[in-house]
Design goal:
mainly beta, Dna Ligase, domain 1, OB fold (Dihydrolipoamide Acetyltransferase, E2P), 2 domains, 5-stranded mixed β-barrel, about 50% strand
Length: about 200
């Protein structure tokens, strides 16, 4: 679920931080820049693990800050495909079951990856597994918000969320809406196998 990712960055240290040790100042600036941010094709950055190499520091004319080339390792959230995780149901919609891990919310289990047969209950706003009891009857098992759920990671999608260019005229509102709808890092999951799904289904 968590990996160490090797990165390089030119870190700017403003004059007000010159009283700190260089490593401490750089660590603070790297965490300020990266913590809780998604890096394209890397994952969700959690915290700095260590600094592996420091190059020489230099000052750019007109800027009193120092700039240092840094190589470092960062703790990143990026589960591998087929990994089994546990989370909580955040909500349900026609798109599927939305799951949260507490620190990461962009997880979707689409309808074709739910236990079969399943249907979406508009009144309860919940997906329902129509469980076959084996005697010709079916028992409705609701996937309610807040329930603990075990799922398998089946895919990941990275999206560039930076604006593509200046929006003008009537395209301003549309461009803003498109940027808001984009998810920088989306995981898709599946519960369509024994042992996966709500924990309460298998604990009894």
């Amino acid at each position: 679920m968590f990996i160490l990712s090797e990165m390089k960055h030119v870190t700017r240290i403003p004059p007000e931080l010159f009283h700190l040790k260089l490593n401490d100042a750089i660590a603070g600036e790297l965490n300020k820049k990266l913590a809780n941010k998604v890096v394209l094709n890397v994952g969700l950055c959690i915290a700095l693990y260590d600094i592996t190499n420091l190059k020489e520091s230099y000052i750019i004319p007109g800027d009193g800050a120092s700039h240092t080339r840094v190589s470092f390792r960062y703790v990143v959230f990026r589960p591998f495909i087929e990994e089994v995780l546990m989370g909580k149901i955040r909500s349900c919609s026609q798109e599927g079951v939305h799951v949260t891990l507490g620190f990461f919310d962009d997880i979707l289990i689409p309808p074709n990856a739910l236990q079969h047969p399943a249907r979406f209950d508009e009144t309860e706003q919940a997906w329902v597994w129509e469980y076959d009891t084996g005697d010709g009857n079916k028992h409705d098992l609701f996937m309610d918000t807040g329930e603990n759920i075990r799922f398998r990671v089946t895919g990941e999608t990275f999206q560039e969320t930076c604006p593509a260019g200046p929006a003008t005229g009537n395209t301003v509102q549309e461009a803003g809406e498109n940027a808001e709808n984009k998810v920088p890092y989306l995981l898709t999951g599946s519960i369509n196998e024994p042992g996966l799904g709500l924990l309460s289904w298998w604990d009894n």
